[in-house]
Amino acid sequence: MKLIHLTAAALIITSGAALADTHITNGTVTKIDTQWSKVTIDHEELKNLDMPAMKMVFQVAEPEMLDGLSEGQNIRFAVDRVKGKLTITEILE
User: 93: burial class by Cβ within 10 Å (0-12, 13-18, 19+)?
Assistant: First the structure.
């Protein structure tokens, strides 16, 4: 019985890690708009949104996420639809 619980737990953890990986992508910051809490990024494919690589403008979930960003900076980030808008939900260092 313990083996079944451990195997199920391992599958859940592994599935969660795989799901998280599909939300993270790489990109280069090309413009920062602090007034409207937006950032333009030339990004790789967004697998979770089935979107090809391109340059586009994103809303950020929190204005503070723009602190420390600079044009030309390479970042890893997560994006999702929030209230119908493509929104950066996480920026990884």
Answer: exposed
pTM: 0.76
Residues 4-28: tens digit of each pLDDT: 444 444 444 444 444 455 689 999 9
Q: Nearest to residue 73, comparing CAs of 39, 46, 48?
A: 39
Report strand pairing: 74-82 vs 24-33: antiparallel
Distance CA 89, CA 53 (A): 18
The sign one gets for the Cα dihedral 72, 78, 80, 83 is negative
Sort residue 37 into left (φ over 0), alpha (ψ -120 to 50) or beta.
left
